[in-house]
Amino acid sequence: MDLASLLLSQLLLLPVVTVVSGETAAHPGYAHAEEACSGMLEAEAEKATVLVPAPERREEFDGGRIVDISHYYREDMPEWESSEGSGEFLQLARSMRNGSDIANFSELRLTAHSGTHVDAPGHVFEHYYDTGFDVDTLDLAVLNGPALLVDVPRDKNITADVMASLNIPKGVRRVLFRTLNTDRKLMWKKEFDTSYVGFMKDGAQWLVDNTDIKLVGVDYLSVGAFDECIPAHLVFLEKRGWCEDPIIWSWASADPIDTNMS
C-alpha cells in the first residue's frame, strides 16, 4: 500500500477546548451560556454587549506548517463505554456579565482520557503510576513535529500483517493511522462504539519490533481494538519507565486533514 506524503504537522495532542465559528454560539461548550443574561432587560443587554467580530477558528497555522488535529470538546462527544457522551463538562462559574464579577472564571470537569489526549505512562502499569510517570514525563520533542499520515485497510483491525503491508520506512518517528473510524465519523457520534478499529496485540508488537515509530496517532478513543485493548496498551507502554525515547501513543482525529491518499 502506498503511503501518504510526509505532513509537516504540529501534533497538538493535549486536551484543549476550542469551538467552531459560524452558526454556533461564541462559547457552545457552556451548557447555560444563553441563560447568563436572563435577568436583564433587552435594552440593558444591548448596552452591556460589545459587538466584535467572531474569532476565526483555524486548523492550519503558519501557512500549513502547523496543523491542529485535535477535536473541539462538546457535550455529545463520545466517552469510553458510555451511551450518554461527555455531558456537561464546562461551566461559567463566575461571570462579568451585568457587572457581577471582575472577570470570567470557567470550570472544566472531564476525564483525562476524553477526546484528543495522550495517555500517561502509568495508565496500565501500577508500578509506573506509583513512581510518578505522568504526562509531565513525556518528551514534547516526540509529541510535536512532522508526521506521516497513512490509510489503513478498511476491512480489518491493525494486525501484524496490516503493519507489514504498510511498508512504513525506517526513520519515520510519528505516524497517524487513518481508519474506518474516520469514514464512519465515530468521534461525531455520542454513543460509544465497541466496533471501532484499533491495534491488535500482534500489530502493536510488530510496530515496536520493526519500526522507528515513537508516536502513534489513531482516530478514536483508544489505540487498542476493543477486544485486545489492554494487551495492545501493555505492548506500547511497557518500556516507558526506562527507555530514553519511549513509544508514545495518542488519540488524534484525521478528520480535518485534507490530504490526497494514493
From TrEMBL:
One of its GO terms (biological process) is L-tryptophan catabolic process to kynurenine. InterPro entries: KFase/CYL, KFase_sf. It is found in: Secreted, Extracellular space, Extracellular matrix. Keywords: Extracellular matrix, Secreted, Signal. Gene3D superfamilies: Putative cyclase (3.50.30.50). The keyword Signal applies. GO terms for molecular function: arylformamidase activity. Pfam families: Cyclase. The keyword Metal-binding does not apply. It comes from the Eukaryota. Residues 1-22 form the signal peptide. Belongs to the Cyclase 1 superfamily. This is Cyclase family protein. It comes from Zea mays (Maize). The gene is LOC100274378.
